[in-house]
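User: structure tokens for Ligase-associated DNA damage response exonuclease, please.
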Amino acid sequence: MEDLIVQRPEGLYCPPGDFYIDPWRPVPRAVITHAHADHARYGSGHYLASADAEGVLRTRLGDIHLQVARYGERLQHHGVTLSLHPAGHVLGSAQVRLEHGGRVWVASGDYKVAPDPTCAPFEPVRCDVFISESTFGLPIYRWCPDEEIFADVNAWWARNASHGRASVLCCYSFGKAQRVLSGIDPSIGPVIVHGAVQPLNAAYRAAGVPLPDTRLVTEVADKADLRRCLVVCPPGAAASPWMRRFGDAQTAFASGWMQVRGNRRRGGYDRGFVLSDHADWPGLMSAIEATGAPRVIVTHGSVPVMVRHLRERGLQAEAFETEYGDDVVEADLQLPAGEGA
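Assistant: Done. Predicted tokens:
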């Protein structure tokens, strides 16, 4: 019996349904798990995504032919029953459940199991075959609770503000930036965001996600605010002329990669905060176990380690070669008019 999802040069393909999931080449029909640039690419004829993802997906891709579905809503296409379920990764992220011929497959895209007030929580979906990412698929990756991380972020910002220095926190414009904004203490000082972050903030607010007030640097009238503010920007902005406005600022990077000693130093950051929108090792293992799937297909990340470990646990484990990976950030640096100076 043919698999419900197979690899093709264009991406992951469902043969009975004749559609792709997160294709990396333009295709007639694409089901999108979330709006990060390595999973949602422009050029396909028809897109299906979760209703929660509509705002961010249109912000990222512009004018596309988009159909949306509520979480859990069941759709029929060429005999395949398809539904989308929360992945807990970013706003609108979804796992794709496919049912056909008595079999159930779930393609999870990217996911995390830790609580996050900016998106719907991860929902385990029982299935026969589970396709799992492995971005942080090594036992060394184990996240601390968010309240501990944000206590450190706030203390760092407050200390810098007391010395008249801006605090520049680098993170991805979509997902991580909004999660950071939801966890900080805005009473410490003004919050300034890069021009790539602001439209995504607007999409989050339109979806009902509360975020503190944020300003563009061009909207700051009192230059004293630039010496006590928190600046949230994509990583590439930290090395651009845009940074000159903040003078002798302290810089930090928020990422799961900060778990590894040396990554902060190689990036030239003063601080590193271990904050990820992906599952850590215990999260990956618990999510896979909760599906009850006897067969697991591993994608992008620490694939050989995950496959070997899952086989040792008695599961049928294998890998898909994909073009997914750490979020593509080039699009983060496309500035609105007036923000590039």
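User: Anything notable?

Assistant: The two ends are 58 Å apart (CA to CA).
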